């Protein structure tokens, strides 16, 4: 759960970043804000267990992380630790882009909760729940309840919108951040997932949807898998998404994705009022790679990411 330092030119391993303190058991993501001398990191999953796929029997055994860590950036030591709940699985950490901002968000994959972390007047840090995506009661799946598996979170460069993707349910969500402590859902689009109409899973009870979403077809190609990684254009108008999370998990939950290959889609964004629409004229098909179908994951711009 600690950090390693690589030489910026040679990529030679230089050692651990943390300064003689006990490292967390495991880690996943981090973000820092130099003007507040802070780094925030999340817990993630025990790597060797993540590599074998998802097993409900691993729940309540400490396999999935539950903590958010606050580090003193200059001293490289942990100053606070927040317990976000058993099997919550905090993954993605993002500060607002404003370099003076002393707040950000962390998404918890298995609990479907997004927490806001912020600096208090006493100069310590606090967390509060600001988004909760309810699970769905289902049949024909690995468990009778399907949680919202939120595996990526990004914030627009102007700090106006937060985007969240839900790999199991299959939707991408857009939240407006004019009141940072109360994000408001203004856009939602389904680009796959495990609850599609005509699939093996039947939704028995759903607090949000009246019916199961339809499968997505773009340029005559059926899109399998669920939204996994996001990247937003710097003008905030185009949201790109891939649908492979982790190959062993892909094989377990979306075998058609592994057989046919993944895809990158473009979601058109209404930056004025909010709203998301799949662009049916854009598709990068990784099923047609020369050496066979491939699984696409991270998306990065050479000039910097959102």
TrEMBL record:
Q: Which family does it belong to?
A: Belongs to the selenium-binding protein family.
Tell me what this protein is called: Methanethiol oxidase
Function of the molecule: Catalyzes the oxidation of methanethiol, an organosulfur compound known to be produced in substantial amounts by gut bacteria. Selenium-binding protein which may be involved in the sensing of reactive xenobiotics in the cytoplasm. May be involved in intra-Golgi protein transport.
The Gene Ontology CC terms held by the record are: cytosol; membrane; nucleus
Under catalytic activity, the entry for this protein gives: methanethiol + O2 + H2O = hydrogen sulfide + formaldehyde + H2O2 + H(+)
**Enzyme class name:** oxidoreductase
* Major localization class: nucleus
Which residue ranges does UniProt annotate as crossing the membrane? Answer: none
The keyword Nucleotidyltransferase is assigned to this record = no
Query: Its pathway?
Result: Organosulfur degradation
Q: Give the GO molecular function terms.
A: methanethiol oxidase activity; selenium binding
Topology of the protein relative to the lipid bilayer:
Peripheral membrane protein
Q: Which UniProt keywords apply?
A: Acetylation, Cytoplasm, Membrane, Nucleus, Oxidoreductase, Protein transport, Selenium, Transport
Biological process terms from the Gene Ontology for this record are: protein transport
Q: EC number(s) per UniProt?
A: 1.8.3.4
Subcellular location(s): the record lists: Nucleus; Cytoplasm, Cytosol; Membrane
């Amino acid at each position: 759960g600690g950090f390693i330092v690589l030489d910026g030119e040679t990529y030679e391993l230089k050692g651990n970043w943390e300064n003689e303190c006990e490292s967390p058991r495991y880690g996943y993501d981090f973000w820092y804000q130099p003007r507040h001398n802070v780094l925030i990191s999340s817990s993630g999953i025990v790597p060797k267990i993540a590599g074998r796929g998802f097993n409900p029997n691993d729940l309540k055994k400490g396999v999935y992380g539950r903590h958010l860590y606050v580090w003193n950036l200059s001293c490289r030591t942990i100053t606070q630790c927040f317990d976000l709940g058993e099997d919550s699985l905090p993954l993605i950490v993002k500060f607002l882009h404003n370099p003076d901002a002393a707040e950000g968000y962390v998404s918890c994959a298995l609990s479907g909760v997004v927490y806001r972390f912020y600096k208090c007047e006493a100069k310590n840090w606090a967390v509060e729940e600001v988004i909760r995506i309810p699970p769905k009661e289902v049949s024909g799946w690995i468990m009778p309840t399907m949680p919202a598996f939120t595996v990526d979170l990004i914030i627009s460069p102007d700090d106006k919108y937060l985007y969240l993707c839900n790999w199991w349910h299959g939707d991408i969500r857009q939240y407006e951040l004019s009141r940072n402590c109360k994000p408001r859902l203004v856009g939602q689009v389904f680009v796959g997932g495990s609850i599609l109409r005509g699939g093996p899973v039947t939704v028995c009870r759903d607090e949000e949807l009246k019916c199961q979403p339809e499968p997505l077809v773009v340029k005559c190609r059926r899109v399998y898998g669920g939204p996994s990684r996001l990247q937003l254009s710097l003008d905030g108008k185009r949201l790109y998404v891939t649908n492979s999370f982790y190959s062993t998990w892909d094989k377990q939950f979306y075998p058609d994705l592994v057989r046919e290959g993944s895809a990158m889609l473009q979601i058109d964004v209404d930056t004025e009022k909010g709203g998301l629409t799949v662009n049916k004229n854009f598709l990068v098909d990784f099923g047609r790679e020369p050496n066979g179908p491939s699984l696409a994951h991270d998306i990065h711009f050479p000039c910097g990411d959102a």
